[in-house]
UniProtKB/TrEMBL annotation:
Domain of life the protein comes from: Bacteria
GO biological processes: carbohydrate metabolic process
Signal sequence segment: none
Stored InterPro entries: 6-hairpin_glycosidase_sf, Glyco_hydro_76, MUG_Protein
This protein's name: Glycosyl hydrolase
Pfam family, one: Glyco_hydro_76
Length: 366
């Protein structure tokens, strides 16, 4: 594996990634973030940005309501609700807090910690005052983010973030319930228990490894390698349905499915895990990357988060001394090229705005 120079690719433009990441975070918080139904101590992200003030006639009822920042439809119990988008919003806030710590900006880190706590409280209330939901992949994403928020609090204040710790414990118990020996192991995607897929098993393995439950983390990572690894591409397929024939594989390859598996492999750190991480990064570079443009960007609402998730875990790989220097350089190149592609975007949906923030934060971290 080699870096961009050895592949004869043009170098990515020079940017101040930290400044761009800070701008992206401010954009998300300003255009999408707000208190949940006005409740003090809460925060939530609207699914869509409000229309520009200039696009409304000043005399219209809509314009008058916009000036008062109306309660978005996402706050209503009957409205569309994307639990996992909010989980990645929380992850992006923790990224910003950790970056502030690296810059010895304790005040900035404390601001992000407060905002993260408020967002987690907003998620809890909006999810009918409970953290579990129907989908185990949603719960895995929030377990990861809540654990990171608690770690930020411990690092910054030497005290746990009580709600984050409670969320992580509650969701970890749910993830254990999703794991059984059907199809040789792995976790179910939802409470229907009719599909085992990479979107839950990747983040669950990463979460278990992060909290020190290495036995189950290793078992899940090994199950993914055995059941959903595509030897032809070197990438992980989407999932398996139990069937009368034993297994029906959904062979689609998504960018985001590769990210948390990479994170799990790095955290587990067994010799074979590090070899597998190296070969996975090479496969990502060969199959999910356009030279000069970066990682493949997925379409759609949910899809608009996918590449940001992969970038977050590639940033961990880029800083991992146990990986070969060329592998780290490849991970860095993928992030920087992707960051250059999204740097000037101004997304109108929350998922894409969080993805832009996440990618730019990954570039700032390497």
């Amino acid at each position: 594996m080699t870096g961009a120079a050895a592949r004869n690719e043009p170098p990515a433009p020079t940017h101040n990634w930290a400044a761009l990441a800070a701008e992206a975070g401010s954009d998300v918080n300003t255009r999408f973030g707000h208190r949940l139904i006005g409740l003090p101590g809460t925060w939530i992200g609207s699914l869509q940005a409000p229309p520009p003030s200039g696009s409304l006639s000043t005399g219209s009822a809509t314009a008058a309501l916009a000036k008062k920042r109306p309660l978005p439809w996402t706050e209503m119990p009957w409205s569309e609700w994307h639990y996992w988008w909010q989980s990645h919003y929380l992850d992006a806030i923790v990224d910003a807090g950790n970056h502030a710590l690296t810059q010895e900006d304790a005040a900035g880190a404390r601001r992000e910690l407060r905002l993260g706590k408020a967002l987690l409280r907003g998620i809890l209330i909006r999810n009918f005052c409970r953290f579990p939901n129907h989908y185990y992949d949603d719960m895995a994403w929030l377990a990861l983010a809540a654990t990171r928020l608690n770690e930020l609090s411990l690092h910054l204040t030497s005290k746990p973030a009580t709600l984050a710790r409670s969320a992580a414990r509650t969701l970890t118990k749910q993830l254990h319930k999703a794991h059984d020996p059907v199809l040789g192991g792995g976790l179910y995607w939802s409470r229907k228990r009719d599909y085992k897929n990479t979107p839950v098993n990747g983040p669950a393995a990463a979460h278990f490894a992060r909290i020190g439950e290495h036995q189950i983390a290793g078992a899940v990572a090994d199950w993914l390698r055995s059941e959903l690894f595509d030897a032809e591409t070197g990438l992980y397929q989407d999932g398996i349905h139990p069937s009368i024939t034993g297994r029906d594989v959904e062979a689609t390859i998504y960018t985001y499915n590769q990210g948390p598996i990479l994170g799990a492999l790095l955290k587990l750190g067994r010799p074979q895990d590090l070899i597998d991480a190296e070969t996975l990064i090479d496969a990502i570079s060969r199959h999910l990357h356009t030279p000069g443009q970066g990682l493949r960007l997925e379409p759609g609402g949910d899809g608009s988060l996918f590449t940001g998730i992969l970038a977050r875990y590639l940033a961990l790989a880029a800083q991992e001394d146990r990986l070969p220097a060329q592998t780290r350089a490849t991970a860095s190149d993928l992030i920087v090229q992707t960051a250059a592609t999204v740097a000037d975007q101004r997304p109108e949906i929350l998922s894409a705005a969080i993805q832009r923030w996440t990618i730019l934060s990954a570039a700032a971290a390497i």
